[in-house]
């Protein structure tokens, strides 16, 4: 039986392990304790976020979403190894899992049984760390991030007097879950075992200096629709059908930055066509003057030329909007 660490003890344990830690918003009082118990705790669970971008991922894990309110973990581990604390208490990260697995974790058994049941509340029993990764088997795991997963899990285990066998992955707890994908939990537990055999790297360790405290986040107005340029957006069939030889459309998924680049290209094309239309109108007026020198001069005023260019630009801009809307709708 282990009582959960207080916010101060958790923060100190992580920093003593040599981690850079950011305290995000009101993480110290942010929890789901009103929905059920928090503790006794028995282990640490590792997840991947299925997101990209630090700001977006941290905000999502803090706030959650309509079907699953936040916090969605206790700490978010970024690609650079920074740990962002987003919750202290019960968090919506583990869900229902296998009671046989929980008993094995409590006993710190050398092997875990198969997770073939979902009958036990894991949110009450496990600390949760979400590591930022798309979980597609292609998104890389930087060394700094793997080191931080190792250190964060070791820090909690060290604080409670647990061994590496108290650390599991979500895929070992709840049937059907794939995370974390990209490394094995057996290899991660081996790393944690080696780390726990040494003194911590932070202020409590020999020959080290305390890490620089992370600055308090500057309050900013939250963006209700944060723009993450690394978001992958599925596309429909009409683009590959129109440009079947374009290798960038082969997998029918585009990065959001690709969409923005496309919109920019359409806008440049609209500007160029409007400019060409204005030049063509001026040439036509000059040709008419040459063909009929005895007739009153047919001069287009700058306002008329601007009107022609604007009308063409408006038409092309409307086509651009339709194309982008259709692409996003698909």
Radius of gyration: 29 Å
Q: Please give the number of β-strands.
A: 12
The separation of the N and C termini measures: 51 Å
- Estimate percent helicity: 25-40%
Structural shape: elongated
Note poorly predicted spans. Answer: 204-214, 218-225
State the strand order across the main sheet.
1-6-5-9-2-10
Q: Which range does the strand content fall in? A: 5-15%
| SS content category | alpha/beta
Task: Count every helix, treating DSSP H or I runs of 4 or more residues as helices.
Answer: 8
Helices and strands, in N-to-C order? HEEHEEEEEHEEHEHEHEHH
Mean pLDDT: 82
Largest sheet: 6 strands, mixed
What does this structure look like?
The longest helix has 36 residues, at 256-291. The chain has helices spanning 7-16, 54-63, 99-107, 143-160, 185-196, 238-242, 256-291, 302-329, and strands at residues 21-23, 43-48, 64-65, 68-69, 75-77, 83-85, 96-97, 120-121, 126-131, 167-169, 232-234, 253-255. It has a 6-stranded mixed sheet, with helices on both faces. Strands 3-4 form a two-stranded antiparallel ribbon. The model is unreliable at 204-214 and 218-225 (pLDDT under 50). Helix 4 packs across helix 5 and helix 7 (256-291) runs antiparallel to helix 8. It has 8 helices and 12 strands. Helix content is 39%, strand content 12%. The chain is α/β, with parallel strands linked by helices. It is elongated and about 105 Å long.
């Amino acid at each position: 039986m282990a009582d959960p660490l207080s916010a101060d003890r958790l923060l100190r344990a992580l920093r003593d392990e040599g981690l850079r830690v950011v305290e995000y918003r009101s993480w110290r009082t942010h929890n789901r304790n009103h929905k059920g118990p928090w503790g006794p705790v028995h282990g640490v669970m590792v997840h991947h976020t299925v997101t990209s971008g630090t700001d977006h991922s941290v905000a999502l894990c803090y706030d959650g979403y309509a079907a699953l309110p936040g916090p969605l973990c206790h700490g978010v581990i970024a690609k650079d190894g920074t740990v962002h604390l987003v919750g202290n208490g019960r968090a919506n990260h583990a869900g229902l899992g296998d009671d046989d697995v929980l008993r094995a974790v409590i006993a710190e058994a050398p092997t875990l049984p198969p997770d073939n049941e979902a009958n036990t509340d894991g949110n009450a029993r496990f600390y949760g760390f979400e590591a930022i990764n798309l979980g597609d088997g292609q998104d890389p795991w930087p060394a700094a991030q793997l080191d931080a997963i190792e250190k964060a899990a070791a820090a909690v285990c060290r604080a409670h007097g647990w061994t590496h066998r108290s650390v599991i992955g979500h895929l070992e707890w709840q049937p059907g879950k794939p995370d974390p994908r990209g490394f094995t939990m057996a290899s991660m537990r081996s790393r944690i075992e080696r780390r726990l055999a040494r003194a911590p790297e932070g202020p409590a360790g020999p020959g080290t200096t305390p890490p620089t405290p992370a600055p308090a986040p500057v309050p900013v107005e939250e963006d209700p629709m944060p723009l993450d340029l690394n978001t992958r957006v599925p596309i429909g069939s009409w683009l590959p059908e129109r440009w079947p030889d374009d290798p960038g459309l082969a997998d029918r998924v585009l990065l959001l930055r690709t969409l923005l680049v496309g919109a920019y290209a359409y806008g440049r094309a609209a500007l160029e066509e409007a400019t060409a239309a204005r030049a063509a109108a001026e040439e036509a007026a000059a040709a008419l003057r040459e063909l009929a020198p005895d007739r009153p001069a047919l001069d287009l005023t700058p306002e008329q030329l601007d009107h022609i260019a604007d009308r063409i630009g408006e038409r092309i801009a409307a086509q651009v909007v339709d194309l982008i809307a259709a692409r996003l709708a698909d």
